[in-house]
Design goal:
- It is a single chain.
- The strands form three sheets. A five-stranded mixed β-sheet has the order 7-6-5-8-9, covered by helices on one side. A four-stranded antiparallel β-sheet has the order 1-2-3-4, with no helix packed on it.
- It is built from two helices and eleven strands.
- It is mainly β.
């Protein structure tokens, strides 16, 4: 069975490289063969009897998108899909499809992490947006409160120094004259 709408099995991102069949409306026999690795995607298909292989680096893809498909007019139920998005819609790949959204977020984050691509959300008009702010590949989030007991300095400094207030030097030093010494000297 081709990957996608009629497939009940899921592609496992931890078993890359993967080779599978996917539906392709423009190809002969409406099927294309896909090789998916962490670094590249190779699409094998035949169009009008001409066999071709399209090699694409993973950097050519925009990200891993989550899409909502409404129910079709022929009473087909709606679905939620995870798609490896490319600027050219013909080169996009469906990675996961579910009738309900029970595992969809976990799968979406898993594919994004394994492929090293940003997570995207497809809007109703087809536009893609990032659900989280990022700087490069690092997601931006509110800072977490710091916990002292897990500090890297904990093993090197006594904790009493963290609780004490540092002393303040007075501007005029105190000098003691004509007092007996406590320490005996010979």
């Amino acid at each position: 069975m081709p990957a996608g709408s009629s497939r009940t099995e899921r592609l496992d991102p931890f078993s890359l490289p993967i080779r599978f069949q996917a539906s392709d409306k423009a190809a002969d026999e409406r099927v294309r063969s896909v090789e998916l690795t962490r670094e590249r995607v190779v699409l094998h298909r035949a169009v009008r009897g001409i066999k071709m292989a399209v090699h694409l680096p993973m950097t050519a893809y925009l990200g891993v998108a989550i899409r909502m498909e409404p129910p079709a007019a022929d009473a087909a139920p709606g679905a939620i899909t995870i798609v490896l998005e490319h600027r050219d819609a013909a080169l996009s790949l469906e990675l996961y499809r579910a009738a309900d959204g029970s595992d969809i977020v976990a799968e979406w984050q898993l594919w994004g992490r394994v492929l090293g691509l940003p997570l995207l959300v497809a809007e109703a008009d087809g536009q893609l947006r990032e659900p989280f702010e990022r700087i490069g590949t690092v997601e931006i989030a509110a800072p977490i409160a710091r916990r002292r007991r897990h500090s890297t300095l904990r093993a090197r400094r006594p904790s009493i120094l963290l609780r004490r207030r540092p002393g303040v030097m007075s501007t005029a030093p105190v000098v003691h004259r004509a007092e007996a010494e406590i320490i005996a000297r010979d």
